[in-house]
Amino acid sequence: MPSALPDGEPMPEDGALPASALAGAASRPLGFYLHVPYCATRCGYCDFNTYTATELRGSGGVLASRDNYADTLTDEVRLARKVLGDDPRPVRTVFVGGGTPTLLAAGDLVRMLAAVRDEFGLADDAEITTEANPESVDEAYLAELREGGFNRVSFGMQSAKQHVLKVLDRTHTPGRPEACVAEARAAGFDHVNLDLIYGTPGETDDDWRATLDAAIGAGPDHVSAYALIVEEGTQLARRIRRGEVPMTDDDVHADRYLIADEILGRAGFSWYEVSNWATSEAGRCLHNELYWRGADWWGAGPGAHSHAGGVRWWNVKHPGAYAAALAGGRSPGAGREVLSEEDRRVERILLELRLVDGCPLTLLKEAGLAAARKARDEGLLEAAPYAAGRAVLTLRGRLLADAVVRGLVD
User: What predicted TM-score, i.e. pTM, was given to this entire model?
Assistant: First the structure.
C-alpha cells in the first residue's frame, strides 16, 4: 500500500457514505483488508505506509503501540458495521497485510479476524489470508493462525540469493521462505503464496532462474512475481542516484518476466493476472480478484483504502492519528471521492485487461476500439477472444500491458 494519499473531499466524522455506495450492495462480494503498519526494519525499496519502532518513538505515544493495535483495529471494524448498516453480505475474503502482520502475536491476528466474523459473518468458503515475514513465524505461530481460521498465507521471499536480498535490505536468510511453506502445509494451510521480485540491481538471469526453481521446489500453489519499482524517497533510490548500485532497465525486466512465465508454466503454474500465477483456479487469490473486478472492500488500518459502489475513501496515514480518531469516536477517514461513470469505465479497463479473461470490448469507445484492432494486428491481443468480444493480452501484450491500456482508454 503506497504511502502517498490522494486528494479528495473531506470524510464525515461518522464515516457515513453516500446512498449510491450502498445501492445494489447485495449483488457485490464484500472483502476486508486489515493493514498492520509495523516493520522491524525498513527495506530499502519500500514506499509503503509502514513504521519501525524508531520511526514511531515520540510521535504516537501509547496510541501508536503495536501492543494494543488489534483492539484499535477492531474499533474500526465495528465502525464499518455501523456505516454499512444492515448489509446482509457475509464477508467473502479477509486479507491481513502490511508492513509485517506477523510482528503481532498470532492471537492478535486471530482476534482481528474474529472481529470481522462477529460483526459481519464469514462466507462458508471465505478466503482468509495473512502476509508473513519468513523470520517472524514458526510452526507454533502458523498452527495458531490456522486454528484461528486463516487458510491462506503469503510469504515474502523476494529472492533465493543472499546478495540480491542484501541490496533489497531484506533480513531473512535464503532457504527460510521455502521452509516456511513446509511449515504452513504441516499446519494445515490450504493455499500458500511466495512473493518474488525481479530486476534488483546486481541480479543476473541465472540468479532469477535459481530463485524461481527454489520457489517452485518449495511447493506453493501460488507465486507472485513483480518487477522492482524504484520509488523516489526510498533508500534504494538514493543509492542508485549516488551511483552505488546500477539501475535495471526495462529490457532486463522484460527478459526476467519471460523467464518467469516459461519456468512457472513448465512447473504447472498458469497466469491469471499479469504478475500472478497459480496451479489451479482454487489457488488464485480471490481477495485480489475483488480489487481487480471492482467489488466492495473495507480497508481498516492507517492509510488503508476502501471502496463501495463507486465511492473510494482512505484513512489517515499515521498510526497515532488513526488510533486517536477512533478513540475519540470519529472515523479515521482522511478523504474520499465519488467516481463518475467515466472514471469507473476507465478503471475497469485498467484492471480487467490485466486478467487472463481480459475486458469486454463494449467498454471501449471509438478510439479505444481502433487501438484494440491495432493491438490485435500487432500480436498484443489474442485473436480468438477478440473475435468473441473481449480484449485479452498475449504474452507479448503482457510485456507491454501499460502501453496497450493507454491506447484502449484513449
Answer: 0.93
Q: Which three cell numbers stand for residue 230?
A: 524504484
The set of long-range contacts for 338-347, using a CB threshold of 8 Å and a minimum separation of 24, is 338/18, 338/20, 338/310, 338/311, 339/310, 339/311, 339/312, 343/310, 344/294, 344/310, 346/409, 347/294
Residue 69's alpha-carbon distances to 144, 180, 262, 326, in angstroms, are 19, 25, 42, 12
Type of residue at 230: V
Q: What is the amino acid identity at position 341?
A: E
Cβ partners under 8 Å of residue 150, min gap 6: 109, 110, 113, 128, 129, 130, 189
How far apart CA 6 and CA 177 sit, in angstroms, is 34
Measured CA to CA, the distance from residue 347 to residue 352 in angstroms comes to: 8
Phi, psi dihedral angles at 333 (to 5 degrees): -60, 135
Q: Which residues have a Cβ under 8 Å from the Cβ of 133 and sit 6 or more positions away?
A: 40, 100, 102, 103, 155, 156, 171, 172
CA angle (25, 129, 212) in 5-degree steps: 125
- 32 and 300 Cβ atoms separated by less than 8 Å: yes
Amino acid 380 reads: L
Determine the Cα–Cα distance for residues 239 and 216; give it in Å rounded to an integer. Answer: 32
Q: Which of 119, 117, 129, 135 is nearest to 86 (CA)?
A: 119
Q: CA nearest 105: which of 63, 75, 148, 62?
A: 148
Distance CA(52)–CA(32), nearest Å, equals: 24
Model pLDDT for residues 377-410, shown as the tens digit of each residue: 999 999 999 999 999 999 999 999 999 999 999 7
Q: pLDDT of 44-63, one tens digit each?
A: 455 556 676 555 654 555 56
* Residue 21, all three cell numbers: 455506495
